[in-house]
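Q: Give me the 3D complex with zinc ion.
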Amino acid sequence: MTFLPIVLAAGLGWLFFSFVEYGMHRYAFHERPGRNWGSRQHLIHHAQRDLVMSKFWLTWSLTILLSVFVLRPAATALFSPVVGWAFAGGAGGGFFVYEYFHTVTHWRAPRTAYGRFVRRHHLHHHFASPMANHGFTTPLWDVVLGTYEPVDRVVIPRRMAPRWMVDDDGDLLDRWCHTYELRGRKATAQERATTDPGEGDLADAFANLAPS
Ligand SMILES: [Zn+2]
Ligand SMILES: [Zn+2]
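A: Here is the predicted complex, encoded as structure tokens.
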């Protein structure tokens, strides 16, 4: 038995996931702001300084159920049981890769060129241009569908800067000066102590505006 169909099916599963990731983020979350549960959760994420993972168990469970009980039988019916598992594995695996990189993007400094790229791409979406760069794991669908903005440098409100890029005083670490720039005031002690977003940041996020 050749592994080629398995590899191809897993790759197609990942491609399918990357389109779903882009499509949900753009069309459901940002283009229908606040009109569905996913959009509300996502726009609250835009307004928060830190990534909060309290509801992630729900998306993980849904992804496993959809992969095993919808995608797998569909690909099995079209091809074979092995291809069905490979397609579902590629799609579900793509989601877990996305979840991992999205989480570490907000939580820790990059360790690879890909890590540096996804942080620039995604933090530009967060802090400069919420209607661009919707794809997270790949810019492919942004390029294909016209929402790609190449990024050299990302300007971030100092009070919302991810903790990995600042020192204890909230100033940008030297090693990030070529890629990131901070503007405005530092986070107050109260803002640092909470994960709740401020009213103004929520209003900006739900209007698809970068935080002011
Ligand atoms: Zn994010
Ligand atoms: Zn977004």
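A quick observation: Residues 45, 102, 106, 122, 126 surround zinc ion (ligand 1) (CB under 6 Å).
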